[in-house]
Write a structure and sequence with these properties.
alpha+beta, 5 strands, 4 helices, 2 domains, elongated, five-stranded antiparallel β-sheet
Length: 114
């Protein structure tokens, strides 16, 4: 027989499930965790192209996202540059790399082509 603490945990879990199902039935869409993290991140998206050691900011975020995600690998690699702090590197070779901060990487991952 479950203890009082276990019954309380079960009841709270069922209440949360009922609440979520009621919201879904009412047509209220809750953001996914990824969208919530993206919305809470206050820094602007920053994406740059590094060619043979020279970093240039990319102003067309959609085009650069498409190019960056076509690279062979994207790895979490934090570097500081005069443009800002980058947390991701997407590349085919050491000569050409696309550098992104977390906000730009999240934006690129949410696009339909990713």
């Amino acid at each position: 027989m479950p203890t009082t603490k276990e019954w309380t945990t079960i009841n709270l879990s069922l209440i949360i499930i009922v609440l979520l199902l009621t919201l879904n039935l009412a047509g209220i869409k809750l953001p996914s965790l990824g969208q919530a993290i993206y919305a809470l991140d206050r820094e602007p998206p920053l994406l740059a192209v590094e060619w043979k050691g020279e970093i240039t900011k990319c102003d067309d975020l959609n085009r650069c996202c498409l190019e960056a995600l076509e690279q062979v690998e994207c790895v979490k690699q934090t570097i500081q540059s005069p443009l800002g702090k980058f947390s991701w590197s997407c590349r085919n070779s050491q000569e050409l790399q696309y550098r992104m901060n977390n906000k730009a990487y999240s934006y690129c991952q949410q696009q339909p082509w990713s």
